[in-house]
Design brief:
This protein is mostly helical. It is built from four helices and no strands. It has one domain (2-65). The longest helix has 17 residues, at 2-18. The two termini are 27 Å apart.
């Protein structure tokens, strides 16, 4: 989930920078930033590559049985 982390941090830095560091980050801010990062990053290609990286394939029954 490194792409999600990078997207979240970029959005967080923009928020802090725009407020000149004088704004407290609330739970509402967290969810707003997280949702924007999640919406920009999560795509079918990324999901499939995450399964491939962990060697988990739900459609590959032979791998599970071995």
């Amino acid at each position: 989930f490194k792409p999600l982390l990078i997207a979240y941090l970029n959005k967080l830095v923009l928020l802090i920078y725009s407020s000149r560091g004088l704004r407290l980050i609330t739970l509402r801010d967290f969810f707003s930033i997280f949702y924007k990062a999640w919406s920009n990053i999560i795509r079918p290609k990324l999901i499939l590559s995450a399964f491939k990286a962990t060697s988990i394939w739900l459609l590959n029954l032979a791998r599970i049985l071995n």
